[in-house]
Amino acid sequence: MKILLTGANGYIGMRLLPQLLDMGHNVVCAVRDEKRLSVDAKTRSKIDVVEIDFLDDPEKQQVPADIDAAYYLIHSMTSSVTDFDEKEAQAAKNFNIIIKNTQCKQVIYLSGIVNDKELSKHLSSRKNVEEILYKGSFDLTVLRAGIIVGSGSSSFEIIRDLCEKLPVMITPKWVLTKTQPIAIRDVIQFLTQVLGNKDTYDQSFDIGGPDILTYKDMLHGYAKVRGFKNWIFTVPVMTPKLSSYWLYFVTSTSYKLAMNLVDSMKMEVVAQDNRLQEMLGIETHTYEEAIDLAFKKIEQNLVISSWKDSIASGQIQEDLENYIQVPKYGVLQDKKSIRIEDEDAVLANIWRIGGETGWYYGNWLWKIRGFLDKLVGGPGLRRGRTHPYKIFPGDALDFWRVLLADKKSKRLLLFAEMKTPGEAWLEFKIEDGVLYQTATFRPKGLLGRLYWYSVLPFHLFIFGNMIKNIAKG
């Protein structure tokens, strides 16, 4: 079958793509920016790519007319606290218009479980999108999931941060809310097995794992799998706003996502029936099995995708192309260069920068800068990086965003998503046996210039020693 995969660069899309290819399907990936599609050359040669922004004029968007089915994996929850529901509704309406010009017979939509009359804004938006898609010119299959547990998922990373950093927790009362987590590999199995299955056309199904747990149970379950104990005490006085700040400062989540998650965590999210599981004969994994499987992926460096690589997880809300040309005028720069002996070894060092590797000098100072960034609403250093030595354009890398990662031209270009009174770039480039390291800052007014000169003493020895350590190969 020829399949349109929307949200192809998202957490679910990146997990689903290799499965569809293994099944022998012809996949067309729909992304806003083709350069951000984080796949290797082998996978790229097997797929077609179309650039589409489903929030733009649908008359200007085109997809192949001969597609047989489509996956609708477009969500905007991490991009806004206030109007993400409007964006999700508009995207769904535009999708219906675009897909009408194709021969698409089935659309599969991954939604959220809805079983409360008073829904959170997040779940209400998912339900509204579902209703919009039912008006399309195709047969719709809706899979409604709750908490998805897998390496790189926002839920897993938040639980991981909380448990690993806080053996004793004072938590809001929403940790007593019941939910039904499901392993990411089970979600992918459901998504692939309903494809072309006419028994699932024009129906909505709840999917979940075998365990119904409170969030408190999930935190204890994580600790059990990891081999330690944690103590959790609930208090009734923590407001949604305070809860959001609590998640934001303790975990790697963005404040926008924390706000939307807390809003949803007040609602019980439990599957109402197991019809689809019985129809397809799928045996789901327990919550503790899902945690164990996630860590096996992490330990083997097999994490395919992470929610943190979403553009919406950071400060840039525009096309990366707008930042890839480093300005030459009206900027302040710190330029350093050093002759190197082994270009390949040095390039490998560059490609490992950030995350667990750190920044090759003064890591404690980088951590302080990350903490200060968190205090003023930035991402801080907690996003880390998805893979220890692979980088793709658009990836999050601590409080930077990867703009360009080209091993052939031996160049890595990063754009700062930390809160600063200006715009900052950090570039590494190897040419003719010389490593060039350039920090560029475009200040916004006098405050920006004062900021640059205030950190200049740190730049002198941090950047100077950093390039020396990278050059050691």
From TrEMBL:
Keywords: Membrane, Transmembrane, Transmembrane helix. Residues 7-147 form the NAD(P)-binding domain. GO terms for molecular function: aldehyde dehydrogenase (NAD+) activity. It holds the Pfam family NAD_binding_10. GO terms for cellular component: cytoplasm. The chain crosses the membrane at residues 450-467. The keyword Transmembrane helix applies. This is SDR family oxidoreductase. The keyword Membrane applies. InterPro entries: DUF2867, NAD(P)-bd_dom, NAD(P)-bd_dom_sf, NAD(P)-dependent_oxidoreduct.
